[in-house]
Amino acid sequence: MERYLPSQGSYVNEGETMEKDITDYALDYARRKHIQYAEVRAHRTKNEQLVIKNGVLDAFLSTIDSGFCVRILTEGGLGFASTNKWTKDEAKAVVDTAYKFATMAKRKDKITFAEEKGVEAKWSVPQKKKIEDISPEQKIEELMEVDKRLSSQDGLNIPGRIIACSMTLTEKYFANSESSIISSFVPKIGPFAFITVVENGKPEQAYKQFGRSGGWEAFDEWKMAESLLHDARVLQKLIKEGKNVKPEKMDLVCGPEVTGIAAHESCGHPTEADRILGREMSQAGRSFIYQGGSYWLGTTIGSNLVTIVDDPTVENSYGYYEYDDEGIKARPRYLYKNGVINEFLHNRETAAKLGTRSNGSSRANSYSREAIVRMANTFLLPGDWTQEEIIEDVKYGIYMRSFTEWNIDDVRFNQRYVGREAYLIKDGELKHPIARPVIETTTQTWWSAVDAISKEIDYDAATCGKGDPMQGAPVYTGGPTIRLKEVYVR
Amino acid sequence: MSEVLTKTQEIVKEGMTLGADEVLAKTTFGRYRQTRFSNNQIDITVAWNDYVTDVTLAWKKRLVSTQVRDFQNTSSIVKRLFELAKVSKENPTYGGIAKGTFEYSKPTADESLRELETPSEYVLEAIEAAKKEAGEEVNAGGTLFTKYEDVYLVSSQGPIGQDERSAIELSIRAFSRIDASGHGVECCSSLKDFKPARAGEKAGRIAKLARNVKQGEEGKYDIIFDPLFFGSMLATWGSMASAFSVMIKLSVFVDKLGKKVGSDIVTLRDNPARYCVSNHVFDDEGFPTQENIFIDRGILKTYLHNTSTAKIFKTQTTGNAGLVQPAAWNIEMDPGDLSKDELFKEVKRGLYLTNTWYTRFQNYATGDFSTIPRDGIFLIENGEIKQSLKDLRLSDNVLRLLNQIKGISKERQHVHWWLEADPPSLSPYVLAEDIQMTRPK
């Protein structure tokens, strides 16, 4: 019995590892059938989760999950089956089920995969401070300390606090009938907090997510307590001093958090090729980009300052990977380039349908889930202004540093962002807080209004939702500070 | 006693032998199947089998959890869990898990869903029904999902139970034009009640009506909510009724027990009954599930509890554990006394909203939110559908919406759809007056 990545698997316990003889058996057995393509993908994930609610540790969860799936393409149909039972009998049953499902599809329009060569690779994300070397006591203490800092500030009342942290160590093994063999190891930390500040009997709330691929060192760098205390003080000030804005057209300066969510929602999602082709039509929806419609590759969607990239290779990012879950090498994807729709996110199936090659956008969050087209880290490229210059150049407008409520329609065109930390700008200076300013606009209006972009860029961790069953994917959203010229804000 | 129950019991014994104060083990052998389709063709059929035991152990008010897969390495896993408990931190608010021996209703899962391996015929039936309504040009997509779970629960505090849970769910969205769509769902716990054509017909009917769409206008409207749309609202409110949500202020119901939160005709229950896709005979502590009225004629009566949160709120568990987080199972809105058609006749000028998604809050404590209607949005005049509209967003407040409910239909539908209407619900057509709609500018 061979273990994968034994040098990296310091947390492996007897009998909980992935077993190569079982996955090899599954792939060999699949190859003996009448197939166009077969793959086996095994995951083994150690997950720890801590939940601290209003200052007490509610629970500490520690699990190890391992299993594998088989995906088969035959007769132009796809079948998929998975299990967490590591036996050859189960492997055989899984292959038989996937094969049967593939033959059942009986599609008129046969599925094919864009051509790829087999690849052998091993990759991993290094840790300066290994998560597995940090004791449970230290993990608890460091998170409890964040809560303690929040609850012990004079003059600041935060009666609702939840701080949760997930730490995962994921080994993957991928092999397919085209001779690809790829193994990987990715450690990740993903804390989040939700706080309610009450002042003069009025509540305001903030949610903050952190996330990174790498070791425990991220925890030191985030300075979670300071970040959350900043948010808490902003909310307190908002309750005390916040004023409504008179609804009208004005300049709107958006910080990286707001730029990032807009890039994710109104560029990343609508350029997912599976959505464009209708495969997600009944859940995540379709796209304003479709064949024969008003928008396609080459169509102008924004000002020529706007270039939005989705890049899985940003080091230590929450959405980092070197090879996707179909074994395709990751690379940056230029989705909107100089204001023009430039590239879609593809897996091998969508690439074949649109006559191109996969750009490595296929991801699955578990061995029990089909890999589908996903974003990784989506951000607007920086410009040549400083943030200060942008604000100084505004006569009358709003600076929206962060957002609270947001949503977008299922073709990713009609969207709304409500400011959380926001200020009036008058004659180039920040004034009083603005209470929940709202921009409700379209993708084209938003990106066309961009007339200034800062040099500085920042990222936020997020969990992107897509798939049925839902597969939350760790991503970065991000970008620089931008100015939208003369947009309607209420 | 079955072999699985015996093995589950052994895990509990091992934990107690090590010195734990309480141990609870729940083994689920789950068999799940899903067919995904789009553009009127099957994209993929997937199967996943899960053999898992959730183990929770409490020692000196320290609560820790893990999972055992296929009963492999149980001794070492339980030992590690106990070691984790010893270095964990006391939760002074932890109130234990349910004690006692309980009688459970007999599970009524449908055995035919255990072996159902070729469900694609149901998909094709639904697509054909949509085409019959809206024409051959219909483009339909969706999912067909089946589950069969064998569940065995053993608690050191007394409960021992066995449950079988089955479900079949179809979700179909039909497009008669690129900008004209309808959505239908069919959700059942047994195959005999499952009528896939019903969902297809509804999706096709709405998709046909939604043609020739015009830009909607901002303003306040009387609104008729379809059961699918309102299922999303019920799911949100059910989640807000969890004591956990209340404790972290992720709820508009904080400090509102005994107070009026909705109009007099609003009664909401949580009830994981046999018909529903989330049917349970016991909760995650082994406490028998029950019907809980949490809003009674507009008055908030209770939060949804596990044993621990119930102690904090000085009340009894409602059978909604989650060991960390109590949760709603299936929200039922009591029916009204008007038919759907009579409800439409009540509307002089208003909207009929058939579905929604992306419900997000500015502030859960105050209830300010917005949600984006999708699929058919229709202008109603004098009780009749007059025009298909687009690009509108409902931007209002939960308490205002609950209080503006003026009519509820006799007809109800069991709905569950993706994350947008989850947990499932038994949802009627609902008329609410004077609701704010906005649009992009």
Structure description:
The complex is a heterodimer of chains A (490) and B (441). Chain A is built from ten helices and 25 strands. In chain A, a hairpin with a 2-residue loop joins β11 (333-337) and β12 (340-341). Mean pLDDT of chain A is 95; it is low at 1-15. Chain A has helices at residues 20-31, 88-104, 136-151, 217-222, 224-241, 256-268, 273-276, 348-353, 387-392, 443-448; strands at residues 37-53, 56-74, 77-83, 120-124, 160-176, 181-199, 202-209, 212-213, 248-254, 308-310, 333-337, 340-341, 362-363, 372-373, 377-380, 396-400, 403-408, 414-419, 422-426, 429-433, 438-442, 450-453, 458-464, 473-479, 482-489. The longest helix of chain A has 18 residues, at 224-241. Helices cover 21% and strands 36% of the residues of chain A. Chain A is α+β, with helices and mostly antiparallel strands and 490 residues long. Chain A folds into two domains: 20-241, 2-Layer Sandwich (PmbA/TldD fold), CATH 3.30.2290.10; 248-489, no CATH class. Chain B is α+β, with helices and mostly antiparallel strands. Chain B has two domains: 3-209, PmbA/TldD superfamily (PmbA/TldD fold, 2-Layer Sandwich), CATH 3.30.2290; 214-438, no CATH class. In chain B, the strands form two sheets. In chain B, strands 3-2-1-4-5-6 form a six-stranded antiparallel beta sheet. A five-stranded mixed β-barrel of chain B has the order 8-13-14-16-18. Chain B is globular. Chains A and B meet through β2, β3, α2, α3 and β5 of A and β1, β2, β3, α2 and β4 of B. β3 of chain A pairs parallel with β2 (41-59) of chain B.
